[in-house]
Amino acid sequence: MTATIISAAASPYDRRKEVEEFENTKLGVKGLVDSGIHRVPTIFHHPPDSLPESDPEEDPIPVIDLSGPESEVVDRVQAAAAKFGFFQVVNHGVPVSLLDRLVKAVRGFHELPAPEKTAHYRRDVSAGASFFSNVDLFVSKAASWRDTLQIRLGPTLADLDAIPSICREEVIEWDKEVKQLGERLLALLCQGLGVHANRLKEMSCSEGRVMVGHYYPYCPEPEKTVGIACHTDPGLVTVLLQDQVGGLQVKHDGKWVNVKSIHGALVINIGDLLQITSNDQYTSVEHRVVANSHREPRVSVGVFFNPSLRDNLYGPLPELVSAEKPAVYRQFTYSDYITRFFKKELDGKSLPNYYRLQNE
User: Fold this and answer.
1) In the chain, at which end, N or C, are there fewer CB atoms within 10 A of the end residue's CB?
2) pTM of structure
3) What SS3 state is found at 327?
4) pLDDT at 191
5) Residue 143 and residue 350: Cα distance in Å, rounded?
């Protein structure tokens, strides 16, 4: 299959055919690297204007100490969520030793022998745990240079037998810790909006949790592709653990900036649904990951916090709507919302823009 992809330049390019050939290997991007390729296959080529610049801006992303006085923490979280849409937290209560073990365990899964790893390869996520490459592989114009282990954490944890044994213990421990952290973050964000601290929790917004363990292997031509294309996250809040390799970039004031890797810190970003429920008081921000030019693979572990009540209506909180500040978005069910997200490729902020009232 690899030889077929590499020789594609000599014959008419059939993207669908090459995508299917790549998918059928069940080996992901790491399988291409392990085969010894020296060129990035055409299905991974991104348009030049969408590729990262060589000299991004310095990192202005706030780092917030969650052990500080509560009123100061609320103010800093509110300011970061409104201005940047991204911030990092330290002294967050999750043991750093667990974070280190989790990164090691997720990397261990992706580096399993092929027969063990491919047993988990599937796009049907109903079992609660699956390994695949590119969630939007069949709808995107260009694939990205990463593989993913996805595990449902809530409202009910995936079947234990479905979670790979090499990372099962760490995932279970991580979910207990990250749920508590996520609930605290949602409470801080609610207080920043001037609504009851449990407002979002009561809407089931801490219950629908999905974990993704991304693996970004070495890329032989990082100038032709990306690790993850420019996008915003669809949920309320994302908690991200990244290793020391780096590569995450955030758009701030129209320019791309690197997000520093700080050992023991967790990266927090505002999702589209929180921008909507906050009636634009908070902002989701476009971000991406550059293709990995290091021989050392990059590993990150993200947890997306989403509502678990899929048929309930969501939109701007009534407390945040007034004659002076009318609703910016129409209401919708979360089921409709997330279905729309998965039917498109990862892109900019098309999801909140679709639900803006001005579009009706």
Assistant:
1) C
2) 0.93
3) coil
4) 99
5) 19
Cα(248)–Cα(10) distance, integer angstroms: 35
What percent of the chain has pLDDT above 90?
84
What is the CA angle 242-184-286, rounded to 5? Answer: 45
Distance separating alpha carbons of residues 63 and 79, to the nearest angstrom: 12
Write phi, then psi, for 248 (nearest 5 degrees): -75, 130
The pLDDT, as a whole number, for residue 5 is 46
Longest distance between any two alpha carbons in the chain, whole Å = 64
Phi-psi region of 51 (alpha: psi -120 to 50; beta: other; left: phi over 0): beta
Residue 328 tokens, joined: 């910016």
Q: Which residues contact 69 (CB under 8 A, 6 or more apart)?
A: none
Choose among 216, 118, 129: nearest CA to 167: 129
Tokens of 95: 């043991």
Does residue 48 form part of some domain?
A: no
Query: Whole domain around residue 229: which residue ranges?
Result: 57-359
Q: What angle do CA 274, 326, 314 make, to 5 degrees?
A: 35
Q: What is the CATH number of the domain that holds 353?
A: 2.60.120.330
Supply the DSSP string of 257-316, one letter for each residue: EE----TT-EEEEE-HHHHHHTTTSS----EEEE---SSSPEEEEEEEEE-S-TTSEESS
Residue 158 tokens read as 């995936």
What SS3 state is found at 293?
coil
> Which stretches of 249-300 are DSSP H helices?
272-277
CA distance 179 to 206: 7
Q: Are 108 and 299 in contact (CB under 8 A)?
A: no
What is the total count of domains within the chain? 1
